[in-house]
Structures are given as C-alpha cells and as structure tokens.
Amino acid sequence: MVAALKVEEQILPPALEHVPKHIAIIMDGNGRWAKARGLPRAEGHRQGTENLRRIIRACVEFGVEVLTIYAFSTENWRRPPLEVRLLMTILQTVIQRELQELSDNGVQIRHIGQLDRIAPSLQKEILHACDYTKDNHRLILNVAFNYGGRDEIVHAVQQIVKDGIPADQINEDLINHYMYTGDLPDPDLVIRTSGELRLSNFLIWQAAYSEYYFTDTYWPDFDKAELRKAIEEYARRTRRFGKTDEQVQDEEE
Ligand code: FPP
Question: Which residues fall within 8 angstroms of residue 232, CB to CB, at 6 or more apart?
Fold first, then answer.
C-alpha cells in the first residue's frame, strides 16, 4: 500500500505556481485538425467542443478564476452559411447539455459580444445560462460569441456618449468599466492554438499587457497537459508592466 502510494506521488505532477487569474484562449485549428484526418470540418468542431469541456475542468482544477474563450467572432459571419449555422447549433447544444454540470462545478457563464444578430431562441438560451449561473464563483467563463474587439470599443464609446460623460472624465478606468469585461481583471495569459500568430480582434483593449502563448497544437489536441505547459511557461516570465527588471525585483522582495 505504502509502495503504491509512493508510485502515485511520483506520477502526480507538481502543484502549479503563479497560476494566471485570467486566461483567454483563441481556440483555433478545428478545421485543420479534421482535414489532417480526412474528416469533415464539423467533426473538428465536435472534437473542439469536447476539448473545451476538458479545458474548463482543468481551469477549475488549476484555480484559474476567469476563462475567456473566443467561440465566434464578428468576422466568422463570413464563413459558409452552413458552418455559421453549425457553430450556432454547437453553442445551443453545449448550453442545453452542459449547463447543469457547469453550474454544479461552480462555473459562472457570461456572454461577451453582441446578441443582436443571433437567433432569438439562442439569445434566450444564452441569457438563461448567464442568469442560471450568476451566483457561482469558482470560475467565470466568458463566452465571446459574436464578439469583436473593435466592435466592443465602438460599443463602449457609444455608451459613454449616450451617458453624457464629459470628455475630461474619460480615462482608462472609465473605458474599462464600459467594456464587456467591465469588472474583471485583464487577461494575464492569452493562448492561441494552431500556429497562427495573431490576436484576430480578440480582447484588443484588455490584452495590452497580457503574456502571449502560441502553440502549433490544434485546438482539439490542446489538452490539460498542454494547458499546464502554457501556465508553466507563463510562470517563468517576468511581467514588468513598463518598469525595469530591478524595480520588479525590489517589489518582489
Ligand atoms: C477555430 O477553428 C474555431 C472556431 C471558429 C470556433 C469553434 C470553437 C469550438 C467548436 C469550441 C466550442 C464552441 C462553442 C460555440 C462553445 P477553425 O474552424 O478556424 O479551424 P481552421 O483554422 O483550422 O480552419
């Protein structure tokens, strides 16, 4: 028994240190994952969705407080109508199938982006999921759906003008407050899978000081071990926020 425990101790990876509070992920490469296997793109999205479940669970386990996922961008409307419909259906299915389990695990679902172009029935599901989980506090899951960073800034400026805020009261804190992520910390770590080295209009205001992690792994294969690797690399980086190395060291001591 003791020997068995010892083996287990050796197998368990060490506890993670410096876990980012907020991780944002561009889940890219579902299509290429499928193509590489001679499968339809839809299968790539299906596997990508399965992987999302694993990653949400891993984030809860690692103690991540906020996870923001880029599920559908304002640019994704340019995809073939069938694929757009599929992505809408996936969100609807995920909500219907996973809501209870997510809620039981303390996940609070939030939506960021515009609801207006989304079918009323899906809008209703999204709002229900957000309302149903609003008192959960283990992990905030921001689902960026019909989301674009520039669109978010335009929306914020429109609201600021509508609220009659005088120019001399507009500062970074105020703009932050008008973003969809209003009360949340900025992402510490932005991950993009599949080898693309772009932000693609994702959280362009909030990610000004984020650390970036790019991997060639396609999203369906970006598992818990890969997430751990990303967090370990993040933990090795020094975040200076414009200061010198010496200043950061002094603050840490
Ligand atoms: C990118 O792969 C992925 C997306 C456009 C989003 C799809 C995300 C999922 C299926 C995960 C869960 C989704 C929801 C709605 C909760 P791609 O199609 O751009 O891949 P490619 O660049 O290889 O073609």
Answer: 16
